[in-house]
């Protein structure tokens, strides 16, 4: 299709060139619509709602309050470690009670703005946070995603899914798969939760 568009080709309904042109017009109109939308409704920080330039960003004040996990971290849970213990080091908690996975990553500490965004996504229907958080997850564990056979979210019991209307783990996994360029590896329905767990309600941030 790219080669056909590169030549001086007379469009016809038979060869589908009008479809190509229509797609181009739709893409142009979509871009114009986004620009108009940003002018009428300027992008806002997903945490404090202050005006920002990048629709997929966060304001400087909230950015400074997020504790990103970097440096020496536990290989299994990403808990910060003291000293240079090597890439295979684990924290005391994981050493005494190893989790059921061989390697894990976390993007931020569950505190401050990071905690506020997690709760907003989980309990506040803030699906707009998913692409932003997905980018942070890719930065923390992009190598694991690249080598994974499938990208599978933690499942949610159907009763809780009916109450919440979406699985936040699924939305994050979807964003990670798209950002990794592996949308076909996203398998949201591979796992099922057969027993409903007790509903945990976290206090408001």
Tell me what the structure shows.
- The chain has eight helices and no strands.
- With 205 residues, the chain is mainly alpha-helical.
- Helix 6 (129-147) crosses helix 8.
- The protein is globular and about 50 Å long.
Strand and helix order = HHHHHHHH
Q: Can you give the mean pLDDT?
A: 82
**Amount of helix:** 40-55%
Oligomer: single chain
Provide a short characterization of the protein structure.
By secondary structure, the chain is mainly alpha-helical. It is built from eight helices and no strands.
Defining traits:
205 residues; mainly alpha; 8 helices; disordered N terminus
Write the layout of secondary structure elements.
Layout: H1 2-6, H2 17-40, H3 60-65, H4 92-96, H5 112-123, H6 129-147, H7 158-164, H8 168-179
Helix pairs in contact: 6-8
């Amino acid at each position: 299709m790219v080669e056909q568009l590169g030549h001086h080709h007379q469009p016809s309904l038979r060869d589908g060139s009008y479809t190509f042109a229509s797609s181009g017009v739709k893409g142009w109109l979509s871009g114009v619509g986004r620009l108009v939308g940003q002018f009428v409704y300027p992008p806002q920080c997903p945490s404090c709602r202050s005006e920002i330039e990048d629709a997929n960003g966060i304001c400087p004040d909230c950015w400074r309050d997020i504790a990103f996990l970097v440096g020496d971290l536990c290989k299994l849970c990403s808990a910060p470690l003291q000293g240079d213990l090597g890439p295979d080091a684990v924290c005391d908690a994981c050493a005494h009670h190893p989790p059921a996975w061989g390697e894990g990553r976390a993007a931020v500490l569950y505190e401050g703005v990071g905690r506020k965004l997690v709760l907003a996504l989980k309990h506040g229907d803030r699906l707009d946070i998913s692409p932003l958080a997905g980018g942070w997850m890719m930065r923390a564990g992009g190598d694991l995603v690249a080598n994974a056979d499938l990208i599978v979210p933690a499942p949610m019991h159907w009763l809780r899914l009916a109450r919440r209307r979406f699985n936040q783990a699924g939305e994050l996994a979807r964003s990670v798969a798209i950002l990794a360029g592996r949308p076909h590896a996203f398998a949201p329905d591979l796992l099922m939760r057969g027993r409903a767990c007790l509903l945990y309600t976290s206090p408001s941030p």
